[in-house]
Each structure stands twice: as structure tokens, then as C-alpha cells.
Amino acid sequence: MKVYGTCKNCEGEISITTDAHTRVEFVMYKGETINIQCKSCGQHNDFHVDRLYAKPSKIAQIISGLVFLIGTPLTFYLVNPVFK
């Protein structure tokens, strides 16, 4: 899971990757507050876990779209005898 926060200095988006699947697991791994360094300005930011948020991943949508776009014509080609 990727967790995001906003830098207090440059207001850029900061991300951190974690193996935790829930907020409770994240707190158990990292603690209540997390120190993350901004890649844009280099400032260290302390975040409380409630100030961080996760974005949904688009990888599952991309994979399902590719399966649909490749699988549909392939199904018609294999099932319909007209194309053979």
C-alpha cells in the first residue's frame, strides 16, 4: 500500500510504501507519528497517522481492461467457426 501526505514547506505530495493493509497494522509497524523527508525540498515532516491517506491503485483496472480487450476478440476467434 502506498500512503501519501502533504509537505508542510512546499506543499508537495510525499509518499511512503508499506506492507500494512490497514491503518491498525500501519500503526503497529511504524508508530503513531512518522517522520518522512520530502523529495522536493528536503525538509523532514512529522505526520500523525490520521493525517496520511492512501490512494486506490489503478493497476487492477489496467489489467482487467487489457484482459477484456485481448480476451474478447480471442474468444470470438476461437468460438466462431466463420473466422477459421
Detail the topology: elements first, then pairings.
Layout: E1 2-6, E2 13-17, H1 23-30, E3 33-37, E4 44-48, E5 53-54, H2 59-79
Antiparallel strand pairs: 1-2, 1-5, 3-4
Number of strands: 5
Shape designation: elongated
**What is the N-to-C order of secondary-structure elements (H for helix, E for strand)?**
EEHEEEH
Give me the Rg, rounded.
21 Å
Percent range of helical residues:
25-40%
Instruction: Please work out how many helical segments DSSP would assign.
Output: 2
> What structural class is derived from the secondary structure elements?
alpha+beta
Across the major sheet, the strand order is: 2-1-5
What is the overall pLDDT average? Answer: 85
Which terms summarize this structure?
84 residues, three-stranded antiparallel beta sheet, 35% helix, two-stranded antiparallel sheet
Question: What would you note in describing this structure?
Answer:
The chain has 84 residues and is α+β, with helices and mostly antiparallel strands. The protein has one domain. Helices cover 35% and strands 26% of the residues. The protein has helices at residues 23-30, 59-79; strands at residues 2-6, 13-17, 33-37, 44-48, 53-54. The protein is elongated and about 65 Å long. The protein starts with a strand and ends in a 5-residue tail after the last helix. The model has no long low-confidence stretch (mean pLDDT 85).
